Request: fold
Amino acid sequence: MALIIRLGSGNRNSFFIPKNKIRLAVVAFLFQQIITFLIGLVVVEFGLLEYPVRLFPTVNRTSFTFEYYAFPVICAAFNVWYPNDRSNLIQVGYYVGFSSVLTIAEVIIEKYTSLINYIHWDWYTSLITIGLALYIARKFCVWFFTKGEV
Reply:
């Protein structure tokens, strides 16, 4: 998996994901793929946005690169480095920061390339859906790794 980059043969730490959080990263990555698969298909099929240039154009009308790789990798990093022991303000800022950076990048890509076209979509819709997807994935990861609590 591309999430782990070894620094050396004898080093037990990874560059991007700490060894003790690899399972969390994998669960977040895979769960986010499920979310983006479903949301991405709905958004494209309802004609809210389109991806004129994409991988596998005869198979899927969504952005394979973003939906199946880039966003799940970002979600994995989001969950691994989540500020659990910080204040609620810091945690909300963490969501806002990640969502804002991704939305700004998407708006720039939409404006200056042919990779994505907003049809019935706006930047604030991206901000909300990205934040919601990160929130759902975070809640799933917390639930998944909670031991003995019901």
User: Anything to note?
Assistant: Strands lie at 49-50, 117-118. The two ends are 32 Å apart (CA to CA). Confidence is low (pLDDT under 50) at residues 1-11. The helical segments are 22-45, 64-80, 88-112, 123-145.
